[in-house]
Design brief:
Largest sheet: none
Shape: extended
Helix content: 40-55%
Mean pLDDT: 76
Number of helices: 9
Radius of gyration: 36 Å
Low-confidence stretches: 182-186, 208-216, 227-236, 242-247, 251-256
Order of helices and strands: HHHHHHHHH
Structural class: mainly alpha
Number of strands: 0
Distance between the termini: 101 Å
Amino acid sequence: MDAEASDLDILLADIEKAEDYGPALSSKVAEGFMKTLERPLSKETVNSLKLKSKIPENCKIFAVPKMNSEIWTQLPAQAKISDLKNQTHLKSLSLALSSLSRIAEIAAKSSSNQSNDSSKEIIKIALDTANVLGDEFQEVCNKRRLDVRRHMNAEYSAVCSAKIPIGEYLFGSDLNEALKSSKAAAGVIRKSMTSIRPHNFKPYFRGGPSTTLNRFRPSSLLPKRGSFQGQSRGRFNQGYQNPIRQFRPNQQSHHQ
């Protein structure tokens, strides 16, 4: 009975469990960090912070990958706007990674001078956080590639692979050489959706409204091919009665 009750408790447990919080910070530290989410920064402040946290020269991979010019010049305007938004996201991640690396560097220098467990803990925390941000950085880069892939001809989709390492350019530094063999740097991007429509494409409905309406008329009421008899083209076979002729007045009685 106890086992059944335990299983029931597990099934009925609230899936939205409370956050598992860590040890409390000092009041001043907590206040300073909470302000980062309580008020937006002005553009001037953001630009100032970006200037303070420069990418280390031996960590250039933190920089936001540039869009290859061969592709950028061919992208439609909306795709460019979307990519610029992703670049802004990456810029923030780049700033955070650069700052964490500087924190770890300061802690490492302090730890080398004397045995300091606190410095080692700082380095560990900074590196763990950098791993989370680095994974997000890669995800956004892959999203940029997939967004561009929507506008590419199918034969060029391989250049959007997530296996391409992150570098100075989003699609690698040798993209121009890869595209040169197909003579298609300018034709990589589809100019319009009509370019992918088959040459033998035909609309499902053809003709005017009357043709479309015939689709809903029972087939038993439609004249069949070859069912006309006699000299008059308007005379149908006996198996078909024109419903309109049923209400036509007798011509002889009309003349009388």
